[in-house]
Specification:
The chain is mainly alpha-helical and 117 residues long. It is 79% helix and 0% strand. It is built from five helices and no strands. Helix 1 runs antiparallel to helix 3, helix 1 crosses helix 5 and helix 4 runs antiparallel to helix 5. The relative contact order is 0.14.
Length: 117
């Protein structure tokens, strides 16, 4: 079961990270306007997603990867999805709730790695 849990979190994170590199210019508008750097953040988050997925899959530094991933996705919720929803984008609520579920899953998975580091 633990392998499937790791797999079901790690694979989407790696794929999402790859999407950041494959469509970086298309993702720049999603970066909040109050954060300078635009495309740099798209690449940074893409790399962080890939690295966290790889860490979870290989169980190398997985506890820290889970915590970092939870924080990063929490930041996405607060800076991207919530403001978009409050501005009237009803679709943003789906992304917010999906990311909230991912944070919950990653934090639950982190417990399995807590004593390994």
């Amino acid at each position: 079961m633990m392998f499937l849990s790791r797999l079901f979190i790690a694979i989407p994170m790696i794929v999402f990270g790859l999407f950041h590199f494959m469509n970086a210019n298309g993702m720049v508008p999603v970066v909040p306007s109050f954060i300078p750097g635009g495309i740099v953040w798209v690449y940074f988050t893409g790399a962080a997603l890939i690295l966290s997925g790889a860490a979870i899959l290989t169980q190398v530094k997985a506890y820290r990867a889970c915590l970092g991933l939870a924080v990063m996705i929490g930041i996405f919720i607060l800076t991207i999805h919530l403001p978009a929803y409050l501005a009237g984008d009803a679709r943003a609520l789906m992304a917010l709730l999906k990311d909230l579920a991912v944070v919950g899953g990653v934090l639950a998975l982190s417990v399995l790695f807590q004593d390994t580091e």
